[in-house]
Amino acid sequence: ADSSASLLHAWSYRKTPSKDLKAIILQSVNNIFQEKTKSTRGELQKLQYISSVLEVEDIKDLVPTMKKMMLRSPEVCCPRIYAIVLGFEKDFSDLAADIHEPLLKCLIGMDIDNVQFAATALKSTYEGSSNVPVKTVEHIRKVWNGKEGKITSSQQKIEVLKLFGYFSNATEDVRVSAI
Fold first, then answer.
1. Which H helix or E strand runs over 114?
2. Which phi and psi (to 5°) does residue 169 adopt?
3. How do residues 66-125 score in pLDDT, each as one tens digit?
């Protein structure tokens, strides 16, 4: 992880990173996602910074690893996805459908920290999307109706309902679907 910091520092001063440097950084991020222990605050800050210089295609390449690790250990992976989402400064439209599924599972989970991470990441994802697919809203509705298991606590219900309000930047059909 320390080598990724120095590489990232070098990359941050280049307008167009070399393919080799970019491949090394992406491999470092991939390795961080595959670790089985919780990330430190410093590692999460590195991920957040790294994601600020990544492109949509780079994040798409990470999605399979994110999903796989969310199935294995959501309590370890959710903060990492949160860091990536917070640092990513581009339109989420092409990523929202892929990223929101594992985060929704954390949102209705029992780990309070992960619920907060997921809620913040989902809010950023939806508000940062200009063209979210309608299927994203439909998936939230399915979760509300019990697709991922019965939502038992009132706080979980509130968190899922709040998601529908975050589509203010979306197209009209998505906003209508969220009503």
1. helix 112-127
2. -90, 0
3. 888 888 888 899 999 999 988 888 887 788 778 888 888 888 888 888 889 988 888 888
Rounded CA separation 175/106 (Å): 24
Which residue in 63, 154, 163, 91 sits closest to 122, CA to CA? Answer: 163
CB atoms within 10 A of CB 80: 25
167: tokens are 């589509």
Give residue for tokens 């709040």.
162
DSSP character for 168?
T
Q: How many CB atoms lie within 10 A of CB 159?
A: 19
- Burial class of residue 16 in the structure, from the number of CB atoms within 10 Å of its CB (0-12 exposed, 13-18 middle, 19+ buried): exposed
What CA–CA distance (Å, rounded) separates 107 from 63? 18
CA–CA gap between residue 134 and residue 27 (Å, rounded):
32
